[in-house]
Each structure stands twice: as structure tokens, then as C-alpha cells.
Amino acid sequence: MKKLLAIVAFVMLLLLMSTGAALALPNGTTFELDRNAQDSNAKNVLPDDWDSLFPVNQSPAAKVAVFVPDPEKNNIFTTGGSKDINDVTEWGWTAGNVPDKDDITNAYAAAYNVDGDLIIYFGLDRYANNGDAQVGFWFFQNPVGLNSDGTFSGTHTVGDILVLSHFTQGGVISNIEVYRWVGSGGSDGSLDLVHKGVDCMPGPSGIVCATVNQAGTLAPWPYTPKSGPSGTFPEGSFYEGGINISELIPEGLCLSNFLAETRSSQSLDAQLKDFALGTFDLCSIEVEKTGDTLSKVGDTVTYNFTITNTGASTLYLDTITDTVLGNLKAQALAAGCGTLAGGASCGFSVDYTVPDGAADPLVNEVTVIYKSTPALTGPAISDTDGHSVDLFQPSITIDKTGDA
Questions:
Q1: 379-399 pLDDT, tens per residue?
Q2: pLDDT digits (tens, 9 = 90+) for 63-114
């Protein structure tokens, strides 16, 4: 019996290993997490690197790519409530300076869809490398911004993602932790620890990893360190990482902003220092309606519908309605529009017979609503498109002439 159990356990282990090998890993064949920002191949050929995206996006694969410069004497955190364990409403900001080692010079993020999985890459560079660093990346579902009175706009949403890392001056990653905002009742109160990662180097490292340059490396964008030549990241100044969101959060989510931060220590209640805030909208949908533009009563008008997921996250059809044709969800589902991965499209056509008394021109609109989860929860992602058909009235004129 013990031998049988051992065999079963061994088989299960092999199955788990084979399943893991099939995962879309952050440092796989899509993006180079290799301690530098230089692409090792042609810019339009995978895997990408940061210079494939910035300062000019040359990647056909990146669904979203955002670069946020953070010049010296820019916005920084202030007030004692600016901590990761507190809601955004308790954070404060001001224009000022932070210690050089905590001064973010640039922050960046990109989203890719790899074999149906959403993978987010993130990174930052800092002004000085004279000391260890604690960094974090927030990925917010609802919009977060800055108010003129020194407060932040927006609030945390349950499920917001926080990635924390600590690295040394020499570029050694000691820990990577992924938390989700739960408000209360988490492993650490408002935060719930959901995953731990390791350094991306030397090879595949699970669904989340990060790494830091261990030698000077070229900067693809304008960069001047505190010490050393311009255009070069000194050792321990360039940080990058990646996370497979789909494996971490199978139910799916939409994001609106990302925030890169530096922190005073590894503690979760550490005071936040510098930040760089950028728009990072992963969910968007587009519907296009075309068809005949000239018809008459009794004739058939053919309407063509094309729906495209123009974002990075997989979306799920909630409703599709037309002001003339009514509910079109059955036709859309039959055409494969029920689930659309980032960048995917679907299309279908519907015939309509123009009735007596139809308005001229015959104007109608179609509206689609998608959600980010199969259960159709979360915010509505929608789009509308219109179409017009001119109706003509057949007529005949008889002109009779003859001798007067």
C-alpha cells in the first residue's frame, strides 16, 4: 500500500511539473528580464526588452506600454498616513526631495497577452545606488490621481495588486512578495499575501520574478545618475520584473493605473518615499457597425458587426443590443464573441427587412457591454457605434401628349 501511494504521489508530482512547464512565465519567450534594457534581437521580433517599447514603441506584441519620467524635485509622498497598509484616501503628496537612493528617475510598465495569459512587466531606475532599496508597484483597478490640495483621488478596490521587492546595492534580490488589497482580514490586515517570488536570473522563475542590474548597462532613454556617465545605469540602479496576472488571479481583472514607489524599509507599514504614477488601462472594447447605406421599404438591409478587444485583459460578453434589431447576444455568442482575449476580434451579420413607416433615414445604434470576469462582475467595458440607411421611394411619372 505504501508503495502504491508513493507511485501515485510521484505521478502527481510529474503532472504538476508538466503543468507548470506549460505556464506562460514572465521571463519566457516574450520579454527579456535579464538585468538590462537592451533588446538582444530585432525590435519587431520577440522577445522584447524595454528599448523595444521606449522611447519609441516598436513592438507589435505589447498591448499596453507606459513610461513615466520622474524628474528631480518632483512629487513625493508626505504625511504619516502614506503607507501601503492604508487606503489611498490617507496618502498625501507634495513637491520635494527624497534621499538620493530612493529617488525614482523613470518608471515603466507593459502588458502582453501570452497564450491567453495576461502578463505585466514593470520596472524603474533610480538616481543613486549608494544603498539598499525597497521598491513597490501598485496596480489599481479604479482610477487613482492627485488632487491639488496634496491628497490622492480615488480609493483602493478589493483585489488591487501590490508587488514588493528588496534589493541590495550590489543588485541582489532578497525577496519578492505579492499582496492583494482586501481592506481587512488579510494575512497582514488590509493586505493579503498571495505569492512569493525569486530573482528572474538565471532562468524561468515561476509566475512572478524580478531582477536588478549587477553591472553598468546602457539606458535607452535620457538618464543621468548621481555618479557615473550619463546614459548608463550604474550597478544596482535598474530594476525590472514580471508577473503572470492570469495565473495569480484566474477570475480576471481590469486595471486603470500603476504606481511605482520607494519605501523607507521592508516593513509593510513603512513610510512611502518617492512615487511615479501612470495611466495603465488594460480593458477596452470597440464595436463597428457597417452595412447597406441605400434601401427602400420591403428590401433587406444587411448589417455587419465587428467587435475587437482593444485592451490586454480577456473580456466576457455581457450584453449587445441594437436600437432597431434588439438583443443580438445569441448571434454574437454563435460568432465566438462570448470571450475575447486581448487583441482578438469576432464578427457576424444580421439581415433586416425595412418595414412600412420606417424613418428616413433609418438610423440605429449598437451597444456592447463586456466584463472582466466569466461571472460578469466588475465594471462595464462598453462601446457604441451607429449606422444610417437612406430610404428612397420608387415612383413613376406618366406624361401624355398629343394633338390639341
A1: 899 999 999 999 987 767 777
A2: 999 999 998 778 999 988 999 999 999 999 999 999 999 999 999 999 998 8
Could you give the CA distance from residue 288 to residue 116 in angstroms, rounded to a whole number? Answer: 24
**How far from each other are the two terminal CA atoms of the chain, in whole angstroms?**
119
CATH number of the domain at 362, please.
2.60.40.10
CA distances from 362 to 198, 297, 301 (A): 60, 11, 11
pLDDT tens per residue across span 338-373: 999 988 999 999 999 999 999 999 999 999 999 999
Residue 31 region by backbone torsions, left for phi larger than 0, else alpha for psi between -120 and 50, else beta: beta
Grid cell digits, residue 275: 512615487
**Can you tell me the distance from the alpha carbon of 358 to that of 261, in angstroms, rounded to the nearest whole number?**
59
Looking at the fold, whether 291 and 267 belong to one and the same domain comes out as: no
176 close to 165: Cβ distance less than 8 angstroms: yes
Residues 36 and 129 in one domain: yes
**Half-sphere exposure of residue 254, counting CA atoms within 13 Å on the CB side?**
26
Cell representation of residue 139: 496596480
283: CB partners within 8 A, 6+ apart: 254, 255, 311, 312, 313, 315, 370, 372, 379, 381
Domain match, 94 and 225 both: yes
Does residue 247 sit in the same domain as residue 338? no
φ/ψ of 123, rounded to 5, equals -170, 170
**Cα angle at 22 between 18 and 24, to 5 degrees?**
150
Lookup: cell for 185: 482580514
Residue 39 in contact with residue 51, Cβ under 8 Å? yes
Instruction: Quickly count: other Cβ atoms within 10 Å of residue 80's Cβ.
Output: 9
Residues spanned by the domain of 94 = 17-279
Number of domains in the chain: 2
Cell of 248: 495569480
